[in-house]
Specification:
This protein has one domain: Aminohydrolase, N-terminal nucleophile (Ntn) domain (Glutamine Phosphoribosylpyrophosphate, subunit 1, domain 1, 4-Layer Sandwich), CATH 3.60.20.10. The protein is of the alpha+beta class. The two termini are about 35 Å apart. Helices cover about 35% and strands about 25% of the residues. The longest helix is centred in the middle third of the chain and has 22 residues, at about 80-100. A hairpin with a 2-residue loop joins strand 5 (about 130-140) and strand 6. The strands form 2 sheets. A 5-stranded antiparallel sheet has the order 8-1-2-9-10. A 5-stranded antiparallel sheet has the order 3-4-5-6-7.
Length: about 250
């Protein structure tokens, strides 16, 4: 009953103690394409399901390289994601130019949280309608972070955002204990399996998923369709009655 009166800007609290504009931005993330992030002791992986607006359209890009040690997967408004991606790239370039060293990932995520929160402090602005999964590797090892339109951010061993992400979270919760000791190929296989359970009636293929990784001795890299093909085939070959990877 309060929404129409209290949802016209992001600085007015409803009598229930809610800020509806921020909740709307969070909902944009929940309705976006699913993205999965997980890490081992040596690697961090991002995996996304891509949408195609029509048969004549290309698939939307969901993974962005920020620096050699850092990349993001997005769920929500792509235009807002590009703004944040450009900001992150500039911060990494400034750090490298000034100190000749890669930017600490935790510090960059803190800056993104501050930047997102600033958008909730002025009635003339609106929150960013995008959530980020950030995969990076610095001197302390691989990391997976999530950022929210509200300005909150969290570090995870494995996480999923976007539509149908609860299915992926269930899969990750069942298997996360074996992630730390996995090699790169096994970790990518888990990421593809997790994104597969979010696909619903859509069959995953090398064209409609994206996978990228970064590691202690590996720069951020997004896999090509040819490199993805073997993982997609592995999932399809393993699919069958009673397969845990296909449970939703």
């Amino acid at each position: 009953m309060f929404k129409n009166q209290y949802d016209t800007d992001c600085t007015t609290w409803s009598p229930m103690g809610r800020i509806f504009q921020i909740e709307y931005a969070m909902e944009a993330v929940k309705q976006g394409t699913p993205c999965v992030g997980l890490r081992s002791n040596d690697f961090a992986i991002l995996c996304c399901l891509k949408r195609q607006l029509g048969e004549l359209a290309s698939y939307q890009k969901k993974i962005f390289r920020i620096d050699d040690h850092l990349g993001i997967a997005i769920s929500g408004l792509t235009a807002d994601a590009r703004v944040l991606a450009n900001y992150m790239r500039m911060e990494c370039l400034n750090e490298k130019y000034t100190f000749d060293a890669p930017l600490n990932i935790g510090r960059l995520i803190s800056q993104i949280g501050d930047k997102s929160q600033q958008k909730t402090q002025r009635s003339s602005k609106r929150p960013y309608g995008v959530g980020l999964l950030v995969a990076g590797c610095d001197s302390t090892g691989p990391h997976i972070y999530e950022t929210c339109p509200s300005g909150n951010y969290y570090e995870y061993k494995a996480f999923a955002i976007g539509g149908r992400s609860q299915s992926a979270k269930t899969y990750l919760e069942k298997n996360f204990q074996e992630f730390p000791d996995n090699n790169l190929e096994d970790l990518i296989t888990h990421a593809v399996k997790a994104i597969n359970v979010t696909s619903g009636e859509t069959d995953i293929s090398a064209q409609n998923i994206s996978v990228a990784y970064v590691g202690r001795d590996a720069k951020f890299k997004e896999l090509t369709e040819a490199e993805l093909e073997k993982y997609v085939e592995k999932i399809k070959d393993a699919a069958g009655p009673g397969d845990d990877a296909m449970e939703t």
